[in-house]
Specification:
The complex is a heterodimer of chains A (154) and B (260). Chain A is 10% helix and 20% strand. Chain A has 3 helices and 7 strands, in the order E-H-E-E-H-E-E-E-E-H. A 3-stranded antiparallel beta sheet of chain A has the order 5-6-7. In chain A, strands 1-4 form a two-stranded antiparallel ribbon. Chain A has a two-stranded antiparallel sheet with strand order 2-3. In chain A, a hairpin with a 4-residue loop joins strand 5 and strand 6. In chain A, 19% of the residues are buried. Chain B has 260 residues and is mainly alpha-helical. Chain B has one domain: Fumarate Reductase Cytochrome B subunit, CATH 1.20.950. Helices cover 64% and strands 0% of the residues of chain B. Chain B contains 9 helices and no strands. The longest helix of chain B has 27 residues. Chain B starts with 16 loop residues before the first helix and ends in a 27-residue tail after the last helix. Classes of the chains: A mainly beta (154), B mainly alpha (260).
Chain lengths: 154, 260
Protein backbone atom coordinates (compact mmCIF):
# COMPACT_ATOMS: atom_id res chain seq x y z
CA UNK A 1 0.00 0.00 0.00
CA UNK A 2 1.39 3.44 -0.86
CA UNK A 3 2.39 6.09 1.62
CA UNK A 4 -0.17 8.01 3.61
CA UNK A 5 0.21 11.04 5.87
CA UNK A 6 -1.10 11.52 9.40
CA UNK A 7 -2.47 15.02 8.98
CA UNK A 8 -2.34 15.76 12.71
CA UNK A 9 1.42 15.17 12.78
CA UNK A 10 2.47 16.74 9.46
CA UNK A 11 3.58 20.35 9.76
CA UNK A 12 3.95 20.87 6.02
CA UNK A 13 7.74 21.28 6.07
CA UNK A 14 8.14 19.91 2.50
CA UNK A 15 11.00 17.45 3.14
CA UNK A 16 8.96 14.60 1.61
CA UNK A 17 8.25 16.74 -1.46
CA UNK A 18 11.99 17.27 -1.75
CA UNK A 19 13.00 13.62 -1.44
CA UNK A 20 10.28 11.71 -3.34
CA UNK A 21 11.93 10.06 -6.41
CA UNK A 22 8.53 9.72 -8.12
CA UNK A 23 7.63 13.36 -7.47
CA UNK A 24 4.24 12.32 -6.12
CA UNK A 25 4.51 13.73 -2.59
CA UNK A 26 3.08 17.24 -2.73
CA UNK A 27 1.54 19.84 -0.47
CA UNK A 28 -2.25 19.72 -0.41
CA UNK A 29 -3.62 22.91 -1.91
CA UNK A 30 -6.42 23.19 0.67
CA UNK A 31 -4.85 22.05 3.92
CA UNK A 32 -1.15 22.83 3.29
CA UNK A 33 -0.13 19.38 4.49
CA UNK A 34 1.75 16.68 2.62
CA UNK A 35 -0.25 14.27 0.50
CA UNK A 36 0.53 11.46 -1.93
CA UNK A 37 -1.11 12.77 -5.10
CA UNK A 38 -0.73 9.55 -7.13
CA UNK A 39 -0.79 6.44 -4.92
CA UNK A 40 -0.71 4.13 -7.96
CA UNK A 41 2.71 5.46 -8.87
CA UNK A 42 4.22 5.02 -5.38
CA UNK A 43 6.80 2.25 -5.36
CA UNK A 44 7.00 2.32 -1.55
CA UNK A 45 10.67 3.19 -1.41
CA UNK A 46 10.26 4.63 2.10
CA UNK A 47 12.28 7.74 1.20
CA UNK A 48 9.59 10.12 2.48
CA UNK A 49 8.89 7.92 5.52
CA UNK A 50 12.55 8.18 6.53
CA UNK A 51 12.91 11.86 5.65
CA UNK A 52 9.88 13.11 7.59
CA UNK A 53 11.13 14.97 10.70
CA UNK A 54 7.73 14.52 12.38
CA UNK A 55 7.38 10.79 11.57
CA UNK A 56 4.05 11.72 10.05
CA UNK A 57 4.22 9.40 7.02
CA UNK A 58 3.49 5.70 7.12
CA UNK A 59 3.36 2.89 4.61
CA UNK A 60 2.28 -0.72 4.84
CA UNK A 61 5.23 -3.07 4.86
CA UNK A 62 5.79 -5.45 1.96
CA UNK A 63 3.50 -8.47 2.20
CA UNK A 64 6.40 -10.92 1.83
CA UNK A 65 7.68 -10.17 5.30
CA UNK A 66 4.70 -8.69 7.12
CA UNK A 67 1.13 -9.80 6.45
CA UNK A 68 -1.93 -7.62 7.08
CA UNK A 69 -2.55 -6.17 10.50
CA UNK A 70 1.05 -5.27 11.25
CA UNK A 71 2.95 -2.05 11.75
CA UNK A 72 6.31 -1.13 10.25
CA UNK A 73 7.79 2.11 11.42
CA UNK A 74 11.18 3.63 10.86
CA UNK A 75 13.27 6.20 12.68
CA UNK A 76 16.12 7.91 10.86
CA UNK A 77 18.62 9.70 13.10
CA UNK A 78 21.03 11.43 10.77
CA UNK A 79 23.14 12.87 13.58
CA UNK A 80 23.82 9.35 14.84
CA UNK A 81 24.12 7.94 11.32
CA UNK A 82 21.53 5.23 12.06
CA UNK A 83 18.21 3.98 10.82
CA UNK A 84 16.02 1.89 13.11
CA UNK A 85 13.01 -0.26 12.26
CA UNK A 86 10.27 -1.69 14.43
CA UNK A 87 7.99 -4.35 12.99
CA UNK A 88 4.95 -5.31 15.09
CA UNK A 89 3.13 -8.37 13.81
CA UNK A 90 -0.55 -8.97 14.34
CA UNK A 91 0.16 -11.89 16.69
CA UNK A 92 2.01 -9.50 19.03
CA UNK A 93 5.59 -10.34 18.05
CA UNK A 94 7.94 -7.43 17.67
CA UNK A 95 11.19 -7.21 15.76
CA UNK A 96 13.66 -4.34 16.07
CA UNK A 97 16.45 -3.59 13.63
CA UNK A 98 19.12 -0.93 13.77
CA UNK A 99 21.57 -0.22 10.97
CA UNK A 100 24.33 2.33 10.32
CA UNK A 101 23.75 4.50 7.28
CA UNK A 102 27.21 6.05 7.23
CA UNK A 103 30.47 6.15 9.16
CA UNK A 104 31.68 9.66 8.28
CA UNK A 105 30.17 13.12 8.89
CA UNK A 106 27.68 14.45 6.34
CA UNK A 107 29.29 16.48 3.56
CA UNK A 108 32.74 15.07 4.41
CA UNK A 109 32.91 13.10 1.12
CA UNK A 110 34.12 15.06 -1.91
CA UNK A 111 31.35 15.13 -4.55
CA UNK A 112 32.17 14.06 -8.14
CA UNK A 113 31.96 17.60 -9.52
CA UNK A 114 34.83 18.69 -7.26
CA UNK A 115 37.29 16.31 -8.98
CA UNK A 116 39.28 17.21 -12.10
CA UNK A 117 37.76 15.69 -15.26
CA UNK A 118 39.53 12.48 -16.42
CA UNK A 119 42.08 12.69 -19.22
CA UNK A 120 42.20 10.42 -22.34
CA UNK A 121 44.55 7.95 -20.66
CA UNK A 122 42.23 7.54 -17.69
CA UNK A 123 39.22 7.10 -19.97
CA UNK A 124 41.05 4.36 -21.92
CA UNK A 125 42.04 2.56 -18.71
CA UNK A 126 40.23 -0.54 -17.47
CA UNK A 127 40.12 0.97 -13.95
CA UNK A 128 37.09 2.76 -12.63
CA UNK A 129 37.27 6.31 -11.29
CA UNK A 130 39.78 6.77 -8.42
CA UNK A 131 41.01 3.19 -8.75
CA UNK A 132 43.31 1.74 -7.60
CA UNK A 133 43.82 4.34 -4.82
CA UNK A 134 40.21 4.19 -3.63
CA UNK A 135 40.39 0.39 -3.22
CA UNK A 136 43.05 0.86 -0.53
CA UNK A 137 44.79 -2.41 -1.45
CA UNK A 138 48.51 -2.39 -0.61
CA UNK A 139 50.57 -3.07 -3.74
CA UNK A 140 47.74 -2.31 -6.14
CA UNK A 141 45.17 -4.55 -7.77
CA UNK A 142 45.95 -8.29 -8.00
CA UNK A 143 46.37 -9.40 -11.58
CA UNK A 144 46.45 -12.74 -13.43
CA UNK A 145 49.74 -13.93 -14.89
CA UNK A 146 50.29 -15.45 -18.32
CA UNK A 147 48.71 -18.71 -17.34
CA UNK A 148 45.02 -17.83 -16.99
CA UNK A 149 44.45 -20.25 -14.09
CA UNK A 150 47.65 -19.48 -12.25
CA UNK A 151 48.28 -16.35 -10.25
CA UNK A 152 51.41 -14.37 -11.17
CA UNK A 153 52.70 -14.28 -7.58
CA UNK A 154 52.36 -18.03 -6.98
CA UNK B 1 2.15 57.87 17.35
CA UNK B 2 3.27 54.79 19.27
CA UNK B 3 2.37 56.26 22.67
CA UNK B 4 -1.17 57.36 21.70
CA UNK B 5 -4.15 55.20 22.63
CA UNK B 6 -6.17 54.88 19.39
CA UNK B 7 -9.19 53.39 21.17
CA UNK B 8 -9.68 56.42 23.43
CA UNK B 9 -10.54 58.63 20.44
CA UNK B 10 -13.45 56.32 19.61
CA UNK B 11 -15.31 57.69 22.64
CA UNK B 12 -15.85 60.94 20.68
CA UNK B 13 -18.60 59.25 18.66
CA UNK B 14 -19.13 55.86 20.37
CA UNK B 15 -20.06 54.81 23.86
CA UNK B 16 -17.09 52.98 25.50
CA UNK B 17 -19.47 50.09 26.05
CA UNK B 18 -19.63 49.33 22.32
CA UNK B 19 -15.89 48.52 21.84
CA UNK B 20 -16.01 46.57 25.13
CA UNK B 21 -19.03 44.58 23.95
CA UNK B 22 -17.21 43.94 20.64
CA UNK B 23 -14.16 42.50 22.46
CA UNK B 24 -16.40 40.23 24.56
CA UNK B 25 -18.25 39.14 21.40
CA UNK B 26 -14.93 38.21 19.75
CA UNK B 27 -13.88 36.12 22.78
CA UNK B 28 -17.24 34.32 22.69
CA UNK B 29 -16.91 33.77 18.93
CA UNK B 30 -13.52 32.10 19.43
CA UNK B 31 -14.88 29.87 22.22
CA UNK B 32 -18.02 28.92 20.27
CA UNK B 33 -16.06 28.41 17.05
CA UNK B 34 -13.56 26.11 18.77
CA UNK B 35 -16.32 23.99 20.35
CA UNK B 36 -18.18 23.80 17.01
CA UNK B 37 -14.93 22.86 15.28
CA UNK B 38 -14.33 20.02 17.75
CA UNK B 39 -17.88 18.68 17.35
CA UNK B 40 -18.07 19.10 13.59
CA UNK B 41 -14.71 17.55 12.75
CA UNK B 42 -14.78 15.05 15.64
CA UNK B 43 -11.30 16.17 16.60
CA UNK B 44 -11.90 15.75 20.34
CA UNK B 45 -13.24 12.21 19.82
CA UNK B 46 -10.24 11.42 17.57
CA UNK B 47 -7.86 12.78 20.21
CA UNK B 48 -9.35 10.73 23.06
CA UNK B 49 -9.59 7.55 20.93
CA UNK B 50 -5.93 8.04 20.02
CA UNK B 51 -5.11 8.72 23.69
CA UNK B 52 -6.81 5.46 24.78
CA UNK B 53 -5.01 3.47 22.06
CA UNK B 54 -1.70 5.00 23.12
CA UNK B 55 -2.34 4.03 26.76
CA UNK B 56 -3.27 0.47 25.77
CA UNK B 57 -0.05 0.07 23.77
CA UNK B 58 2.12 1.47 26.57
CA UNK B 59 4.57 -0.80 28.35
CA UNK B 60 4.71 1.26 31.53
CA UNK B 61 2.33 3.49 33.43
CA UNK B 62 2.99 7.23 33.54
CA UNK B 63 2.28 8.61 37.03
CA UNK B 64 0.65 11.92 37.91
CA UNK B 65 3.90 13.69 38.77
CA UNK B 66 5.55 12.55 35.57
CA UNK B 67 2.46 13.58 33.61
CA UNK B 68 2.67 17.05 35.17
CA UNK B 69 6.35 17.26 34.22
CA UNK B 70 5.48 16.28 30.63
CA UNK B 71 2.73 18.91 30.56
CA UNK B 72 5.21 21.57 31.71
CA UNK B 73 7.78 20.42 29.14
CA UNK B 74 5.09 20.59 26.43
CA UNK B 75 4.13 24.10 27.55
CA UNK B 76 7.79 25.17 27.46
CA UNK B 77 8.16 23.69 23.97
CA UNK B 78 5.00 25.46 22.76
CA UNK B 79 6.13 28.79 24.24
CA UNK B 80 9.46 28.47 22.43
CA UNK B 81 7.87 27.07 19.20
CA UNK B 82 10.29 24.18 19.64
CA UNK B 83 8.27 21.80 17.44
CA UNK B 84 9.44 23.46 14.21
CA UNK B 85 12.31 21.75 12.45
CA UNK B 86 13.07 24.87 10.38
CA UNK B 87 14.78 27.77 12.15
CA UNK B 88 13.21 30.36 9.83
CA UNK B 89 9.70 29.01 10.46
CA UNK B 90 10.40 28.97 14.17
CA UNK B 91 11.54 32.61 14.27
CA UNK B 92 8.59 33.71 12.12
CA UNK B 93 6.18 31.79 14.36
CA UNK B 94 7.69 33.25 17.53
CA UNK B 95 7.33 36.78 16.13
CA UNK B 96 3.73 36.18 15.09
CA UNK B 97 2.73 34.31 18.27
CA UNK B 98 4.16 36.78 20.78
CA UNK B 99 3.11 39.70 18.59
CA UNK B 100 -0.46 38.41 18.60
CA UNK B 101 -0.39 37.81 22.37
CA UNK B 102 0.84 41.36 23.00
CA UNK B 103 -1.60 42.81 20.47
CA UNK B 104 -4.64 40.94 21.87
CA UNK B 105 -3.88 41.55 25.55
CA UNK B 106 -3.11 45.25 25.12
CA UNK B 107 -6.22 45.73 22.99
CA UNK B 108 -8.32 44.36 25.87
CA UNK B 109 -6.44 46.49 28.43
CA UNK B 110 -6.82 49.69 26.37
CA UNK B 111 -10.50 49.07 25.59
CA UNK B 112 -11.53 48.11 29.13
CA UNK B 113 -9.19 50.16 31.36
CA UNK B 114 -8.49 53.30 29.30
CA UNK B 115 -11.55 53.73 27.07
CA UNK B 116 -11.68 57.58 26.97
CA UNK B 117 -9.24 60.52 26.89
CA UNK B 118 -10.34 61.22 30.48
CA UNK B 119 -8.51 58.04 31.52
CA UNK B 120 -5.13 58.41 29.77
CA UNK B 121 -3.26 55.16 29.28
CA UNK B 122 0.40 54.89 30.38
CA UNK B 123 2.56 55.09 27.26
CA UNK B 124 3.73 51.50 27.65
CA UNK B 125 0.32 49.99 26.72
CA UNK B 126 -0.12 51.65 23.31
CA UNK B 127 3.57 51.07 22.63
CA UNK B 128 3.26 47.35 23.33
CA UNK B 129 0.08 47.30 21.18
CA UNK B 130 1.95 48.86 18.24
CA UNK B 131 5.04 46.69 18.66
CA UNK B 132 2.82 43.59 18.87
CA UNK B 133 1.07 44.51 15.60
CA UNK B 134 4.47 45.21 13.99
CA UNK B 135 5.77 41.80 15.15
CA UNK B 136 2.72 40.13 13.56
CA UNK B 137 3.42 41.98 10.32
CA UNK B 138 7.15 41.12 10.25
CA UNK B 139 6.65 37.42 11.10
CA UNK B 140 3.48 37.08 9.04
CA UNK B 141 4.65 38.73 5.82
CA UNK B 142 7.99 36.90 6.04
CA UNK B 143 6.07 33.64 6.36
CA UNK B 144 3.58 34.55 3.64
CA UNK B 145 6.04 35.58 0.94
CA UNK B 146 9.11 33.45 1.65
CA UNK B 147 8.58 30.59 4.09
CA UNK B 148 5.17 28.99 3.58
CA UNK B 149 5.55 25.59 2.16
CA UNK B 150 3.68 25.80 -1.12
CA UNK B 151 5.80 28.82 -2.04
CA UNK B 152 9.10 27.49 -0.66
CA UNK B 153 8.76 23.81 -1.61
CA UNK B 154 6.23 23.77 -4.46
CA UNK B 155 7.16 26.99 -6.25
CA UNK B 156 3.59 28.35 -6.22
CA UNK B 157 2.99 32.07 -6.53
CA UNK B 158 2.84 33.87 -3.16
CA UNK B 159 -0.27 35.65 -4.46
CA UNK B 160 -2.28 32.45 -4.80
CA UNK B 161 -4.91 32.41 -2.04
CA UNK B 162 -6.91 29.40 -0.79
CA UNK B 163 -9.11 28.73 2.24
CA UNK B 164 -6.12 27.50 4.27
CA UNK B 165 -4.88 31.11 4.19
CA UNK B 166 -7.92 32.47 6.00
CA UNK B 167 -6.20 32.64 9.39
CA UNK B 168 -2.87 34.14 8.37
CA UNK B 169 -4.42 36.60 5.92
CA UNK B 170 -7.10 37.84 8.33
CA UNK B 171 -4.47 38.14 11.07
CA UNK B 172 -2.17 40.13 8.80
CA UNK B 173 -5.05 42.29 7.59
CA UNK B 174 -6.15 42.98 11.17
CA UNK B 175 -2.64 43.94 12.36
CA UNK B 176 -1.79 45.97 9.25
CA UNK B 177 -5.09 47.86 9.22
CA UNK B 178 -4.81 48.43 12.99
CA UNK B 179 -1.48 50.20 12.46
CA UNK B 180 -2.77 52.25 9.52
CA UNK B 181 -5.94 53.16 11.43
CA UNK B 182 -3.96 54.17 14.55
CA UNK B 183 -1.68 56.37 12.45
CA UNK B 184 -4.65 57.98 10.64
CA UNK B 185 -6.44 58.48 13.97
CA UNK B 186 -3.45 60.18 15.61
CA UNK B 187 -2.64 62.34 12.60
CA UNK B 188 -6.29 63.43 12.23
CA UNK B 189 -6.62 62.03 8.72
CA UNK B 190 -10.01 61.68 7.03
CA UNK B 191 -9.04 58.05 6.30
CA UNK B 192 -9.42 57.15 9.99
CA UNK B 193 -13.10 56.16 9.72
CA UNK B 194 -12.84 54.00 6.55
CA UNK B 195 -9.72 52.33 7.96
CA UNK B 196 -11.57 51.67 11.22
CA UNK B 197 -14.33 49.95 9.23
CA UNK B 198 -11.84 47.78 7.35
CA UNK B 199 -9.97 47.01 10.60
CA UNK B 200 -13.22 45.83 12.22
CA UNK B 201 -14.12 43.67 9.21
CA UNK B 202 -10.67 42.00 9.20
CA UNK B 203 -10.78 41.45 12.97
CA UNK B 204 -14.31 40.01 12.83
CA UNK B 205 -13.24 37.63 10.07
CA UNK B 206 -10.18 36.62 12.12
CA UNK B 207 -12.15 35.74 15.26
CA UNK B 208 -15.38 34.67 13.59
CA UNK B 209 -13.87 32.21 11.12
CA UNK B 210 -12.47 29.78 13.70
CA UNK B 211 -14.38 26.71 12.36
CA UNK B 212 -12.98 27.28 8.85
CA UNK B 213 -9.50 28.57 9.67
CA UNK B 214 -6.55 27.23 11.65
CA UNK B 215 -7.04 29.74 14.46
CA UNK B 216 -7.70 26.94 16.97
CA UNK B 217 -4.32 25.31 16.27
CA UNK B 218 -3.18 27.13 19.40
CA UNK B 219 -5.36 24.69 21.38
CA UNK B 220 -4.97 21.52 19.29
CA UNK B 221 -1.23 21.59 18.63
CA UNK B 222 -0.16 21.58 22.31
CA UNK B 223 -2.66 18.75 22.98
CA UNK B 224 -1.12 16.65 20.18
CA UNK B 225 2.41 17.49 21.39
CA UNK B 226 1.47 16.43 24.93
CA UNK B 227 0.09 13.11 23.66
CA UNK B 228 3.33 12.53 21.76
CA UNK B 229 5.40 13.12 24.89
CA UNK B 230 3.22 10.77 26.95
CA UNK B 231 3.50 8.13 24.18
CA UNK B 232 7.29 8.45 24.40
CA UNK B 233 7.18 8.16 28.17
CA UNK B 234 4.92 5.09 28.36
CA UNK B 235 6.97 3.24 25.76
CA UNK B 236 4.34 3.02 23.03
CA UNK B 237 6.08 5.74 20.98
CA UNK B 238 3.36 5.55 18.28
CA UNK B 239 4.97 2.21 17.33
CA UNK B 240 8.23 3.98 16.43
CA UNK B 241 11.50 2.23 17.29
CA UNK B 242 13.50 3.47 20.25
CA UNK B 243 16.32 5.91 19.46
CA UNK B 244 19.65 4.28 18.66
CA UNK B 245 22.05 4.00 21.58
CA UNK B 246 24.83 5.92 19.85
CA UNK B 247 26.36 9.39 20.19
CA UNK B 248 25.19 12.07 17.75
CA UNK B 249 28.54 12.70 16.10
CA UNK B 250 27.75 13.14 12.42
CA UNK B 251 26.01 16.52 12.33
CA UNK B 252 22.87 17.14 10.32
CA UNK B 253 22.25 16.90 6.60
CA UNK B 254 18.85 18.62 6.69
CA UNK B 255 18.57 21.56 4.36
CA UNK B 256 15.66 23.76 3.35
CA UNK B 257 13.48 21.89 0.84
CA UNK B 258 13.84 23.47 -2.62
CA UNK B 259 12.12 20.98 -4.82
CA UNK B 260 10.94 23.03 -7.76
Amino acid sequence: MPTFVYMTRCDGCGHCVDICPSDIMHIDKTYRRAVNIEPNMCWECYSCVKACPQNAIDVRGYADFAPLGHSVRVLREERKGTISWKVKFRDGREKDFESPIRTTPWDSIKPPQDYAPPGPAELASQSLAHEPDSLKIPGGLPALGKHPLKRRDS
Amino acid sequence: MLAANPFAALSAFLSPLIPQAYVVAMVLLVAAGTVYDMLHKGSARYFFDSWDAMKRRGVRRVGGGEMLGLALATAAEALASGEFCSTRRRIAHLLTMYGFAAYAVTTAVLVFCYPTPATPAPAIWPEVWSVGALMICVGGYWFWFFIRVDVAAEGNSPWRVVRADLFILSLLASATLALFWAYAQVSGSAWALPLLGLYLIATTVLFGSVPWSKFSHMFFKPAAAFEKRVADANGSRNNLPAPADLPATFGSVRRQPRHY
